[in-house]
């Protein structure tokens, strides 16, 4: 469900029961519930930013849904506080919580390993061809978080929270202009957006092939960031930190 300028709110349904991920706005969720005849039983929150939690209070008061969210962040209305390694059952689906600090200090992700394919709801940590800004965490934290997500099965579907894909691809092409998989992705996703369709979900496999923030060990990325003469001697955290700073100022 699109919200605001570029947010996506993800609605899960099984039978007549539903759950929603990161409802920054209650209105589109309530409209979808009514349209499909669903009852909201669970709300999943990844981090405390307003565009992810702004609709939680209204949805909870109107539906009685149980709110799950990060234990390490101050978010009103959370009933079930979660940290990495915790397991929960939502709509009959087993979810594993992964700690992914970096964008915020207590950011978490939800991974459904038993679905075919597996599902990942990662908020603002991993984007399609990008990653979140470091508002509260350090480069080493964010890199470790991305490494944890990159280690998930390649078929895992990645449901992030923003339609940033084309802008992220433009930056990625400035780093790896000869990456064939990236060039193919650019053409495909441009056509998708021209049709008015979302570029998401992505997959872990696609991100490993095209997302520079998951490719800090690739010689082409290291050379673009550190310079070919010094790339091999620069540690990967420094490569990541420089890459993130380059993205921050990219126009």
Describe this entry's structure for a reader.
- The two termini are 28 Å apart.
- With 251 residues, the chain is of the alpha/beta class.
- The protein contains nine helices and 15 strands.
- It has helices at residues 26-36, 50-53, 56-63, 139-150, 165-175, 180-194, 204-210, 219-226, 236-248; strands spanning 2-3, 7-8, 10-14, 17-21, 39-44, 66-70, 80-82, 87-90, 93-99, 108-112, 119-123, 126-127, 130-131, 157-160, 202-203.
- The model has no long low-confidence stretch (mean pLDDT 96).
- β3 and β4 form a beta hairpin.
- Strands 8-9-10-11-14-15 form a six-stranded mixed β-sheet. A five-stranded mixed β-sheet has the order 3-4-5-6-7, covered by helices on one side.
Major sheet description: 6 strands, mixed
- Unreliable runs: none
Helical content, roughly? 25-40%
Backbone structural class = alpha/beta
Number of strands: 15
Amount of beta strand: 15-25%
Q: Label the overall shape.
A: globular
Output the helix-strand order.
Answer: EEEEHEHHEEEEEEEEHEHHEHHH
Q: Number of helical runs?
A: 9
